[in-house]
Amino acid sequence: MSNENNLSYLASEDFSQKINSIIDEIVNFDQEKEAFELVDLIKKIFAKNDKLEDSYPNIYEWLCGVSIKAQFIALPYLSKNDLLSLFNNNFNIIFDLPDYILEDKIKKWLIETKDLVERDNVKKEIINILLKSDIVITGKNVIIDNIKHRGTVGIWLKDFNIMLGNDSTNNLHFAQYFADSANIKLLDESEKQKLMILFKFYEKLKISSTLLTGIEESFVAVLPNGEINIFEGGKLKKINSEVLEIYNQIKENHSEGNKNNDKVIEFASTPEIRNLIEISEQFPVGSLERRAVDEEIKKLSSQ
Q1: Contacts of 33 (CB under 8 A, 6+ apart)
Q2: Which pLDDT belongs to residue 168?
Q3: What predicted TM-score, i.e. pTM, was given to this entire model?
Q4: Region 190-218: what's the mean pLDDT?
């Protein structure tokens, strides 16, 4: 935007409409690259207009809010410091983003960190931030040892750990907490949903990236009996016969040398192929829809 260093333009309705339109599209369509570009634009606006906060405090606060939303969408692109800052200061914003899946975003970020031990270190840092967080996410107080506390992220995690312990918990105990907790019973459904998101994310962070159940990557796995599966989310998933046929074609096309064989594995582990496989399996074998999806997989394999 050519007028980014013009204070009067930044305070105009035209500017606010453009920015609101951009952030709405970014959030609705989960546009990570565009979100990161918007974050960069707002940084430049602040850098070129050091009097903006004093002259137009409302505009400054609004742009800060837009930047925070954009950062959550662009989370896989963030530096470690910016990532931790988001969790430290603005965790509650995730509840304002429709269909936002925090686990998927953090998984993408972690995959870019090749050192598995460092991944665990980052997870631990996020856990510590959440355990100490004073960000309020429920209107009702939380009663612990007959003492009322504000419904902050940290207090809710403390209540959760008191009932279930600090180690990883299973789905049964998780469900029992929601059914039996006196504090949970006081909440409305929207607040319960917030806690469900928080606790599931917290439990996911506890799992080490060095364990099979905690590996962030997805990849093709060839079992001892020769069966081809996809390993994803700590579990082996069978590939439907049509997609398996495509995989075999890819393997044949790239059978010359280890380098090309590695390309097969790399391709099969991309988000595109995983998403298409999941979509394909939703349709009946031989259906028009399934054939169309499988055709798209073939196109990707030739790139």
Answers
A1: 74, 77
A2: 87
A3: 0.79
A4: 94
